[in-house]
Amino acid sequence: MRLDHSQIIRRPLVTERNMHRAEVRNQYTFEVVGTANKVEIRKAIESLFNVRVQSVNTTNVKGKVKRRGWHVYTTGKMKKAVVTLHPEDKIDLL
Fold first, then answer.
1. What is the mean pLDDT of residues 69-91?
2. Any residues with CB less than 8 A from the CB of 82 and at least 6 apart, and which?
3. Which of 5, 13, 67, 73 has CA 20 to 30 A from 23's CA?
4. Distance (Å, rounded) from C-alpha 28 to C-alpha 15?
5. Would you say residue 15 has pLDDT above 90?
6. How many CA atoms lie within 13 A of 93 on its CB side?
7. Which tens digits make up the pLDDT trace of 43-74?
8. 41 CB-contact burial (10 Å; exposed 0-12 / middle 13-18 / buried 19+)
């Protein structure tokens, strides 16, 4: 099944570490659909934000085991994409 560009990118991950990466290295972190590959992520970012992408690095983050009293559960897993932009381009997340 073919996904639309807006369906591939779920949300930007805005943390202190990721915002520092954006300022210093021009790298932005997004949560993406687990079935998306690097080429699809590149095309989605370029079309949604109108920027030039230099590289895309992806990683699958496992869910963590948590406890609350007697109950044991796992948090959800996700796929992260760290996108490096051309030095002249920027994305305004905030």
1. 95
2. 21, 27, 28, 29, 56, 57, 58, 59
3. 5
4. 11
5. yes
6. 18
7. 999 999 999 999 999 999 999 999 999 999 99
8. buried
* Sole residue written with tokens 């590959």: 37
- Cα–Cα nearest to 28, from 88, 94, 84: 84
Paired strand residues for 82: 29, 57
**What pTM did the predictor assign?**
0.87
Buried residues in 24-33 as b, exposed as e (16+ CB within 10 A): eebbbbbebb
Mean pLDDT on 8-17: 95
Structure token digits, residue 56: 């895309």
Q: How far apart are CA 20 and CA 22, in angstroms?
A: 5
How many CA within 13 A on the CB side of residue 67? 2
At 3 the pLDDT is 84
